[in-house]
Amino acid sequence: MRILIHETTWDMLVGKIRSGAKPYENSWRYLTRIHDIYIQFERKYFTRLFFLLTRTNNNNNSELATKLLSKFPSKLCKVFFVNSGSEANDLALRLARTHTKHKDVICVERGYHGHTISTLAISPYKTKKIGIKNDWVHTVSCPDMFRGVHANLSEKDQAVKYSNQVRDVCEEHEIGAFIVESGMSVAGVVLPPKGYLEHCYKHVRRFIDHCVHSSI
């Protein structure tokens, strides 16, 4: 079991062991290995610390999940704790594919969604530079209102034009998920035209119900 220990708490524990003090017989003891030293210690020292493993006995995770869910629509009733945006998007892909039984993913040009093998594959900002192309990845144009392929149109018309590319891919392929950033920042700051995301979600949900809202 690995445990995050504050420096002052560590010093206190080492001092307790060196002084020969023994834990109370009825105390709840944990056994952990830190810097190759095994220590038995009392639970009271760690009531405010987070364990790295969520399956260990700690109420902080469930309390935080409950507070988060209170802010969401009732339909969103599950919380997964992960250690990075890359892992979050990787897990989102796995969940979507498990549900839809389809592997293909729609992503947006210049998008970045992480550095795991699967999230890197759907990050055109990275893969385009090194020439990686996967047949299950379908890239649509970046909805750049100022430098994009539809920059000469009004904002409203741009939202329709760009989102129609998502619709077309959904009609031509069996899609497992659509992943998009609400505002791109890695490849330069790009905010999509108003209505773009709503149109995209509407098109995707005609075929599947998995839109991954990414932000890394």
Tell me what the structure shows:
The protein is an alpha/beta fold. The chain has three domains: 1-49, no CATH class; 55-81, no CATH class; 85-214, Type I PLP-dependent aspartate aminotransferase-like (Major domain) (Aspartate Aminotransferase, domain 2, 3-Layer(aba) Sandwich). It has seven helices and six strands. The chain has a four-stranded parallel β-sheet with strand order 4-3-5-6, sandwiched between helices. Strands 1-2 form a two-stranded antiparallel ribbon. Strand 5, helix 7 (196-204) and strand 6 (211-214) form a beta-alpha-beta unit. The chain is globular, with a radius of gyration of 24 Å. Mean pLDDT is 78; it is low at 1-10 and 21-52.
How is the topology of this model organized?
Elements: H1 7-18, E1 29-34, E2 37-42, H2 60-69, H3 85-100, E3 104-108, H4 117-121, H5 124-130, E4 137-140, H6 155-172, E5 175-181, H7 196-204, E6 211-214
